[in-house]
Amino acid sequence: MSSRTELSQEREIIGTFQPAIHLPQNWNYEVTGPQYRALMHPPHDVGGQFDFSIQHEEKEEEQWELNTYVTCEVLAWRGFWTAEERRRRADNDLGYTMYLGFPYYGRWIWSAARMLVDKKHFSLAELMEKFAEVKSRYEK
Amino acid sequence: MKSKTMEKSQNNIGVLEEHPLGVQPRFKVGDRVQLRDMPYFFYTRSQMWARGVVGTIAALTYSDLVPEDEAFNVDGRVEQYYIVRFRQKDVWADYPFEDDTIQTESPERWLEPIS
């Protein structure tokens, strides 16, 4: 169980996700043409956008990353989704905050879970309960 | 993990009837409960501000579909909904008045009994 302090810290982090430049966004009927195109832009198409230089790092995949990769490939092999659907879900549908906030394979596993819920292979409530049960094993 | 399929309990105008499947409520008015702090996934109606806070059952409202399931058009399971009353001071640490309360609705699965 998260403490009140942890929840309060979580709220502060959520506050930092607010865009640095944000027009009042509720009841925003005055979306200009360029704004509309920018809002509709898929997050994974980043070519030409401003960014800081990234330090190149030689790093092996971690075990959870390999597990995620194999899980997603097996789901494709068994016909649950295609590679293109995985890309659409993991790179496009999750939005900028999660796209930029998760590591590469974090986005993969997020999209696999979402796909299985969307296609009713199990329900969201069942997934939540299972997640809580497994998490509690590690907290003992 | 596959949900059991039950018949839809809707009348002819598409409105859910009260207690359609005879759900047996786990709590009664006055019971002390704590809102669970379950992981966030994709959709929930259980607000962050109330998580982990101990409150009191103020009313039993109705039984209806599990919200996290209904949000994805899965209409198998039905559960009891409650109005839960919390002390404002238990929710917001620096809240200035002792006696003020705040209420929210919660489905049964999110509530744990406090003895």
Give a quick precis of the structure.
The complex is a heterodimer of chains A (140) and B (115). Chain A is mainly α and 140 residues long.
Question: Can you tell me about this structure?
Answer:
The complex is a heterodimer of chains A (about 140) and B (about 120). Chain A has a domain at about 80-140: Cyclin A, domain 1 (Orthogonal Bundle). Chain A has 7 helices and no strands. Chain A is an all-alpha fold. Chain A has helices spanning about 5-15, 35-40, 65-75, 85-95, 95-100, 105-120, 125-140. With about 120 residues, chain B is mainly beta. Chain B has one domain: SH3 type barrels (Roll). In chain B, about 5% of the residues lie in helices and about 30% in strands. Chain B is built from 2 helices and 5 strands. Chain B has a 5-stranded antiparallel sheet with strand order 4-3-2-1-5. The relative contact order of chain B is 0.26. The model of chain B is unreliable at about 1-20 (pLDDT under 50). The interface between A and B is medium-sized, with 25 and 27 residues.
List the helices and strands and how they pair.
The complex is a heterodimer of chains A (140) and B (115).
Chain A: H1 4-16, H2 33-40, H3 63-77, H4 83-93, H5 95-101, H6 104-118, H7 124-139
Helix pairs in contact in A: 3-6, 4-6
Chain B: E1 32-35, E2 54-65, H1 67-70, E3 78-87, H2 88-91, E4 101-107, E5 111-113
Antiparallel strand pairs in B: 1-2, 1-5, 2-3, 3-4
Give short descriptive properties of this protein.
heterodimer, A: mainly alpha, Cyclin A, domain 1, 7 helices, globular, B: 115 residues, mainly beta, SH3 type barrels, 7% helix, disordered N terminus
